[in-house]
């Protein structure tokens, strides 16, 4: 079952606030993430890495190309007339040791690796945008909370100033209120600067230009807590986390590369077929023509040659590459095992953080914020009846503002912890 808790986490699940916004304004974190994933240049660059891997896969399937050789020879340039030779040869390399299927397997793992890296980059970018979104919304809510106190203080100062002018109140009360108005306005200016900076950081993370409209929500909405257990989250993380896919694919790829390197230590065979036609012309040492000149004899030969070419190499010639590939395989396997262990611990830490934040928000909502508001209302009534000093009202008002700001921080922490829990588990929890 799902239980609801008031917090800023609802902003992470596409809650929409449509009042007073332009039709084209981005109004939820889901919209922001979708637009960023579609337009982010870094994501597009990683997608090109996937396209590169697919090109390598296509290239890996190519077989060795044959060679066609044409030769023509003549003795005339060297003063030997009548000697000519023409030949044509065909040479076909043949891979041994299953090099082509092993090469294809390495390229297929490279495609899987690029796809997993793309998913991992999207996961990290989504989490970063959510975290920045939470910071921006929390800062905006703090500004609104301080604005309410500033408005109350200004109105109180106006009333007390009028009473002082009529000699119905002490000038000290007016001075105390003036100091409090200035203090809250200074606090408001600082928090407003933090809110503006948080929005800029959000736009930076999402690669959203300042010209693009962005409408942050005006109030938090109760989200749904994930109805899963810690063990289910651990199991899910081991199954779907992209960084684990990356580690496992790297391990499989390194194993395939080791097999390929070992196969490359086996020499390839080249089979050939050649046809040669030779012409020879020479003088008969005995016979002569009717004119008395030596009789010229001609000889023509047709020769077909078949051959096999095998490089004379040993496995030691490739031993260094084999040792390097074996080391890469061992390193990839070790990293994969380490990540499997740490992934479970990350989920456990995120779960503990989420549970603590959830309990903190529940306490604030149940016995802190409302009680603080009631206490301030009672003290104000007592001051109006002359039973308390203005300084007592101002002190309680400061405590009430601090309580509200702490409650906003608690709700923001709950939202961040839920986003971290999603990141650790490998995806949204619904």
TrEMBL record:
Residues 1-20 form the signal peptide. It comes from the Bacteria. One of its GO terms (molecular function) is efflux transmembrane transporter activity. Residues 29-63, 391-418 form a coiled coil. Keywords: Coiled coil, Signal. It holds the Pfam family OEP. Belongs to the outer membrane factor (OMF) (TC 1.B.17) family. This is TolC family protein. It comes from Paludibaculum fermentans.
């Amino acid at each position: 079952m799902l239980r609801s808790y008031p917090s800023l986490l609802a902003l992470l699940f596409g809650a929409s606030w449509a009042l007073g916004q332009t039709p084209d304004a981005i109004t939820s974190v889901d919209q922001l993430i979708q637009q960023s994933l579609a337009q982010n240049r870094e994501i597009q660059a990683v997608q090109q890495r996937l396209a590169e891997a697919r090109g390598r896969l296509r290239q890996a399937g190519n077989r060795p190309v044959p060679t066609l050789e044409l030769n023509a020879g003549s003795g005339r340039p060297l003063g030997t007339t009548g000697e000519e030779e023409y030949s044509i040869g065909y040479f076909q390399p043949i891979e041994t040791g299953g090099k082509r299927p092993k090469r294809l397997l390495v390229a297929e793992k490279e495609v899987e690796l690029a796809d997993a890296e793309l998913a991992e980059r999207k996961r990290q970018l989504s989490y970063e945008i959510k975290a920045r979104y939470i910071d921006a919304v929390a800062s905006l809510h703090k500004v609104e909370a301080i604005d309410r106190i500033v408005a109350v203080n200004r109105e109180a100062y106006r009333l007390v100033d009028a009473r002082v002018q009529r000699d119905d109140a002490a000038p000290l009360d007016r001075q105390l209120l003036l100091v409090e108005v200035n203090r809250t306005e200074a606090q408001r200016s600082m928090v407003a600067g933090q809110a503006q900076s948080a929005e800029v950081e959000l736009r930076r993370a999402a690669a959203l230009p300042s010209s693009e409209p962005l409408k942050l929500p005006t109030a938090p909405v109760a989200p749904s807590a994930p109805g899963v257990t810690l063990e289910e989250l651990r199991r899910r993380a081991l199954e779907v986390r992209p960084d684990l896919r990356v580690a496992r694919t790297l391990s499989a790829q390194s194993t395939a590369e080791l097999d390929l390197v070992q196969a490359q230590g086996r020499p390839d065979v080249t089979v050939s077929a050649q046809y040669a036609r030779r012409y020879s012309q020479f003088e008969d040492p005995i016979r002569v023509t009717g004119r008395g000149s030596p009789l010229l004899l001609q000889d023509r030969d047709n020769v077909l040659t078949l051959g096999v070419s095998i490089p004379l190499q040993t496995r030691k010639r490739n031993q260094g590459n084999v040792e390097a590939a074996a080391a890469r395989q061992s390193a990839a396997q070790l990293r994969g095992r380490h990540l499997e262990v740490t992934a479970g611990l990350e989920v456990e830490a995120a779960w503990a953080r989420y549970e603590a934040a959830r309990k903190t928000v529940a306490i604030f909502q149940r016995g802190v914020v409302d009680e603080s508001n009631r206490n301030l209302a009672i003290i104000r009534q007592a001051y109006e009846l002359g039973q308390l000093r203005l300084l007592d009202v101002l002190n309680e008002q400061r405590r009430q503002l601090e309580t509200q700001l702490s409650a906003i921080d608690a709700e923001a922490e709950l939202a961040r912890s839920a986003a971290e829990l999603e990141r650790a588990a490998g995806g949204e929890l619904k």
